[in-house]
Amino acid sequence: MCSDEVETSELEEAQIGTDIVEIERFRGLTEDSPFVQRVFTRIESSYCFSFQDPAPHLAVTFAGKEAVAKALELNNIGRIASIEIIRSTEGVPNVRLLDGPDGNQIRVSLSFSSTHAVAVAVSYPRARSLELGDIQAKIDRAVLELLQRE
């Protein structure tokens, strides 16, 4: 099997979620905005507002939260607030669930252009021994395809 291929049987239980948003929708928001307070955690808000232009970072973080919610098939209103997108010291996005199903491994890929932010999330059972590099490669290809359609 090639390094960028994963057998279909290995991904049978995997769920994928995607989201794309316009960055302009996030212009003018402040850390005190009700929307920011309701949707973003303190860690997410601090990260996004550490940039001179927080709008793309707010947008891509929001898209990541939506993609994760879709991958986990979370349909309740408070689902977004229970998903936290955190970055490693290298800037790699990771997902932390503050409330809800914790039996899944979740990988997320985030990207933005000058006008749009896009995210793809994959959720799969922790018990699986999938090659994370293979899954990340699939996510990265999906993000590139979405951005090319823009």
Overall helicity: 25-40%
* H-E string: EHHHEEEEH
Q: How would you characterize the largest beta sheet?
A: 3 strands, antiparallel
Beta-strand segment tally:
5
Rounded radius of gyration (Å): 15 Å
Unreliable sequence segments: 1-10
Question: What is the CATH first-level class name?
Answer: Alpha Beta
CATH structural fold name: Ribosomal Protein L22, Chain A
Instruction: Quote the average pLDDT.
Output: 84
> What separation lies between the terminal Cα atoms?
32 Å
Question: Which tags fit this structure?
Answer:
Ribosomal Protein L22, Chain A; alpha+beta; 150 residues; two-stranded antiparallel ribbon
Question: Care to describe what's here?
Answer:
- A hairpin with a 3-residue loop joins strand 4 and strand 5.
- The chain is built from 4 helices and 5 strands; from the N terminus they run E-H-H-H-E-E-E-E-H.
- It has helices spanning 34-39, 42-48, 55-71, 132-148, and strands spanning 15-22, 83-87, 93-97, 104-112, 116-125.
- The longest helix is centred in the middle third of the chain and has 17 residues, at 55-71.
- It has 150 residues and is an alpha+beta fold.
- Mean pLDDT is 84; it is low at 1-10.
- It has a single domain, classed as Alpha-Beta Complex (Ribosomal Protein L22, Chain A).
- It has a 3-stranded antiparallel β-sheet, with helices on both faces. Strands 2-3 form a two-stranded antiparallel ribbon.
- The radius of gyration is 15 Å and the shape is globular.
- The N and C termini lie far apart (32 Å).
- Helix 2 (42-48) packs antiparallel against helix 3 (55-71).
